[in-house]
Every structure is written in structure tokens, then in C-alpha cells.
């Protein structure tokens, strides 16, 4: 057993929740952002601004025409897998081989492809690392092992993983339609907390294909955390903190949360309020990419995702037009309500002595 532990250490194979569910999942979200999400943004910009280069096909593959954004979106599987491999400290031969693994697992996983990529890429990466540089023909053995294991696993487990993820996501969305008030609270609070925790809310939403009314609740929860923390900590962090948290990430407050968990009360309660407001009052829906549901105001990706969904709905005839109430609801849920409600709740926490000066200061 000691020799096996030494082998794992030498290969930098660390079997831990942090390595897989924090490091790998966070990297996977970045891979999604740099492919599917940025592709959607490019397509939306091209369509709305009438930029010919972004709306015209630039490549034809297997009879399918692709725009610039379409090419980026098509590479989501390889991008996720390579990002996971990077987080797992894969050597170059393993890292490059994961592009094939990601393509296979994402394609075979269907709508739940991101979750299939997550599991398959981790296994293929770790086994690839295990054989890397162990033979004199490493240039053959390492990619062969990584790709064959990855593609084999993809064929075996990606379809059921994808179906399971899709069913779970569909169940959440169905429950949100059935009970928009209760599920608005649950989805908003949980996804918002995932955003601030060192795990990826974007990857979770993408894996579950969380869209529709549930996606709108997820957007509300993420915005409550980001805008809430940004505004209520303005006294300590000024404009730099407002920008870094408001359009960056509320994860910056994680160290302060560990030191004083009570600073998290205001953003969580805010998300519990704005979630059902989004689902019941404004009927806010995320019909853009599912990954956008878990991004909040990070680079305004959540808002761009909602807007791209409106555009698609109008084009398909599912929505007559983008009206005043659509914009009003999105602005209220994304910015105004969190900016007002969260500081008020935090003010009460300060009066109770739960939050003190300096508790929200970013280092």
C-alpha cells in the first residue's frame, strides 16, 4: 500500500474532493465559458449588430455550416476536457489527448454532455497520468491509453450519465413550473451559494441543463450573491471591490465567510426573496445556454444569456417581442433588488452585532 501511495504521489494523482469537485469543476466551467458561452455571445452580437463576419458561415464540416460562434460552441467538449486536464496537472501528452475524449463524451452524453465530460475526463486524465513516461515508447502509449480509455468509457457511461442529468434537470424545471414560489426560493438559494463557494455554479447548471423558469431563479440567486456582496461591502472595499465582486465573483468573500459565516446571511436571504420574485412576478426565464444560468452578473453573462434566449424565442415565434416588462424584470432582479435588499438585511445584522467593521474587507 505504501508503494502505491508513493506511486500516486509521484504521478501527482490526488484522490480528493478538492481536486475533483473544486479544481476540476471550476476549470470545466472556464472551458465552457471559452467555447459554448463565448460562441453564444459572438452569435448574439453578430445578429443584433448585423456584423456580416459573425453571421456568415466561415467553415463547412460534414455538410454542416458553422459561423465563428458556431465553431466555438462546437468545441465545448474538447475545451471542457482539456480544462479539466489542466486542473489535474496532466503532462502535455495526456492533456492534448483529452481533446478527443472531451469530444466523444460530450457528443455521446447528449444534452447532459457536460456532466459526462466531467466524469470521463477525470478518469481518462488520471489513468493517462499513471502511464505517462513509464515506457520508452511514451509518445505512443500515453495518447493510446488516454484516448482508448476515454472513448471507451464515453461509449459505456456517457449516454446514461447524460440521460440521468437531463432527467434531474427536467425534474427541477418541472417542479419550478409547478411550484414557482417554493422552487424559486430553493433554486435561487442553492445556485447562489454554489456561486460563492469554491465550486462552479455554471458547471452545475450546464450539467443539469437548467434553463427556463428554474434558470431564471438561478440567475436571481447568483445576482443576489454578487451584487449583494459588492454593495454591502462598499464601505470596506470601495469601487474596486464593487467591480471585482459585482461583475467578477462573490467567491472573493469566501475567506471572510470562513472567518465569520454570519456575513453570508444577507446575500442568502436576498436570494430567497429575489428567487420567487423572479419566478412568480416577472416570470424571468433563461432560454439561452444553460451555463449562463449559473454566471449571474459575471461579465454580464447571465443577462446576455437571458437576452439571447429572448432573441431565439422571437425568431422561433415562441415570443412576440421583447417588451418593457422583460427589461424591467431583468434589471430589477439582476441589479436593483439585490443592491437594495442585501445592504438592508446586512444593516440589521450589524445592529445585532453579527457583522462588524472589517468583516467584509477583501485582502
Please give a structural write-up:
The chain folds into two domains: 2-165, no CATH class; 179-351, no CATH class. It has helices at 2-10, 17-49, 52-55, 68-74, 76-87, 92-108, 113-131, 138-178, 180-196, 201-208, 212-232, 234-246, 254-259, 265-281, 301-316, 324-351; strands spanning 59-61, 64-66. α6 packs antiparallel against α7 and α9 packs across α10. The mean pLDDT is 92. The chain contains 16 helices and two strands. Helices cover 74% and strands 2% of the residues. A hairpin with a 2-residue loop joins β1 and β2.
Write the layout of secondary structure elements.
Blueprint: H1 2-10, H2 17-49, H3 52-55, E1 59-61, E2 64-66, H4 68-74, H5 76-87, H6 92-108, H7 113-131, H8 138-178, H9 180-196, H10 201-208, H11 212-232, H12 234-246, H13 254-259, H14 265-281, H15 301-316, H16 324-351
Antiparallel strand pairs: 1-2
Helix pairs in contact: 2-4, 2-5, 2-15, 5-6, 5-7, 6-7, 6-8, 7-8, 7-10, 8-9, 8-11, 9-10, 9-11, 9-14, 11-12, 11-14, 11-16, 14-16
